[in-house]
Amino acid sequence: MGAVLALLVFTGCAAQKTATTKPAAETGSAEADKVLYERAITDLQHNRFDLARLSMQTLINTYPDSEYLAKAKLAIADSYYKEGGTTGLTQAVAEYTDFITFFPFLDEASYAQMQIGMAHYRRMEKADRDRSEALEAEGAFQNFLQKYPHTELTPRAEQRLREVQEVLADGDFRIASFYYIRRMDKASAPRLLDLVNRYPLYSAADRANWMLASIYERNEHNDVATTYYTRLVKEYPLSSLAADAKAKLVKLGAPVPQPDPTALARMQKEQDTPRDRPGFLKRPGELLKSGPDVSAAARVGQPTLTPQAEDAGDTLSPGAGLSVVAAGGASTGGNGSGTGAYIQMVSPGTSDPAAASAGSAAGTGVAGSNDPPAAGASAQDQAGQSGQANTSTNAGTNANGSADPPSQTSQSQGTPQGTNQGESSSKKKKKKQAQLQPQQTPSK
To answer: How far is CA 358 from CA 184, 250, 374, in A?
Structure first.
C-alpha cells in the first residue's frame, strides 16, 4: 500500500508540473513579437538605430501575422528619420512611402505622409540655392492637406507649407529683382507674375505687385498697371506701398478701391502674431547654417494647395503682357501688336544679348516694340541693329515654315560651291585625266 500511494503521489506531481509548464511555453511563444517590439523601441530611444532595425526586421520576417507588424514597419522609418543625414532622410522617405502603400487606411498613414514632408523640409536649402528639396516638401505637404484636412497634424502641416512657399517665393523674387533693377523686363515680369498669383502670402508680395505694375507702366500698358496697383491697395492695405499705389491710381485716372476686409483682418492678425527672429548673437551662426531662414513666413492664411504642374501655363496670357519680343523672336499678327507673351528664340551656340545695349527690354528694335533704343547709340548703329533684328526674325519665321522659302538662286549657287570646296585635289586630278582621255567606241 505504501508503494502504491507513493506512485500515485509521484504521478500527480508530474501531471501538475506538466500542466503548469505547457501554458507558460505557449504564452512565451505568443508574446515573442511583443518582446521584440519593446526591445526595438528601447534601442530606438537610446539611438541604437541598427539594433532597433534588426529587431523590427526580425519581427516582420518571423511573425507576418503579428499585431505589431504595422508598428514595426513605421518604427523602421522613424529610426531612419531620427538618424538623419542625407542617407537616413532619403531612406526614411522610402520607408514612409512603403508604409502608406501597405497600410493606407490606418490612422498612422497621415503621420507617415507628414513625416515625408518633414524629411524634405529638413533637407531644404536656402532660397538662392538648390530648390529641389523645397519643391518636394511643398508637394508632400500639399498632398497631406488634401488627403487629411481634419487631423491634429493639419495646423502644423499648414505652417510648414507656408514656410516652404516663403522660401520658394523668395528665390523667385531675388531673380526677378535682379532683372528688374537692370530694366530687363522680359526676364523679370514673368517671374513676378507667377509669384503674385501663386504665393499671395509671401512676405514681400506687396513689393512684387508694385514692381510688376511699374514694369507695365514704363512700357505704356497703363491699363494692366492699374490692375496690380489696385490689387496692392485691396489685398495689402497695411503695406508701406499702399499710399504710393493709391497715388499712382489717381495719376492714371483709375478709381481707388477700398481695402478688402478679409485681407485687412489677416494682415492685422499677422502683425499681432509673435515671431521668433534670430537675435544679434545668433546671426553669425545663421550664415553657416545650410537651411533657410523662415522667420518672415506668414502665420495666418490659407497656403496654396495647387501643385505647380497643374497651374503651369503661359506666364503671360494673351493681351495682358508686354507687346515686345526678344532679339530673334517675332511678333504675332500683321499689325505688330503681338500677343503679349514674352518670346525669346535661342539658337544653339549663340549667347544671350548684352544687358548694356538692351535698354528696358534687353533686346533690339523689333516691329511692335515699345522700348526706346539704347542711349548714346548712333544712327548707323541703330540701323545696323534694326537690320540684324529683321534678319533674325525672318530666319526664325522661316524655320517655323510661316514665311517664304529661300530663293532657288541662293540654293543653286551654294550647292556647287560647297561641293567643290569639299573635294580633294586628287579627285580633281582624276576627273581632269578622265576628261582628256579619248572615248573608246564599243566593238560590234
So the answer is: 8, 31, 7
pLDDT at 308: 77
Residue type, 223: D
* Averaged pLDDT of the chain: 74
Q: Are 298 and 269 in contact (CB under 8 A)?
A: no
One-letter amino acid at 58 equals T
All 3 cell numbers of residue 403?
A: 514665311
Distance (Å) of CA 262 to CA 84, 152, 266, 302: 41, 26, 6, 12
Residues 55/40, Cβ–Cβ less than 8 Å = yes
Give the sign of the dihedral formed by CA 98, CA 99, CA 105, CA 110: negative
SS3 content of the chain, % helix, strand, coil (to 5): 60, 0, 40
Exposed (0-12), middle (13-18) or buried (19+): which is 388, by Cβ within 10 Å? middle
Give the DSSP letter of residue 150: S
* Model confidence pLDDT, tens digit, residues 130-179: 999 999 999 999 999 999 999 999 999 999 999 999 999 999 999 999 99
Number of Cβ within 10 Å of residue 378's Cβ equals 8
Instruction: Please tell me the distance from the alpha carbon of residue 373 to that of residue 361, in angstroms, as a whole number.
Output: 10
Cβ atoms within 10 A of the Cβ of 17, count? 10
State pLDDT tens for residues 377-422: 444 444 444 444 444 444 344 434 444 444 444 443 444 444 444 4
Rounded CA separation 402/418 (Å): 27
Buried b (16+ CB within 10 A) or exposed e, 97-109: eebbeebeeeebb
CA distances from 397 to 12, 72, 349, 388 (A): 106, 63, 19, 14
C-alpha cell at 132: 529641389
What cell does 53 get? 532595425
Grid coordinates standing for 274? 509673435
**Looking at beta carbons, which pairs linking 243-246 to residues 24 or more positions away fall under 8 Å?**
244/210, 245/210, 245/213
Grid cell for residue 210 = 508694385
Is-contact 301 201, C-beta < 8 A?
A: yes
Q: Euclidean distance between the first and final Cα of the chain, in Å?
A: 143
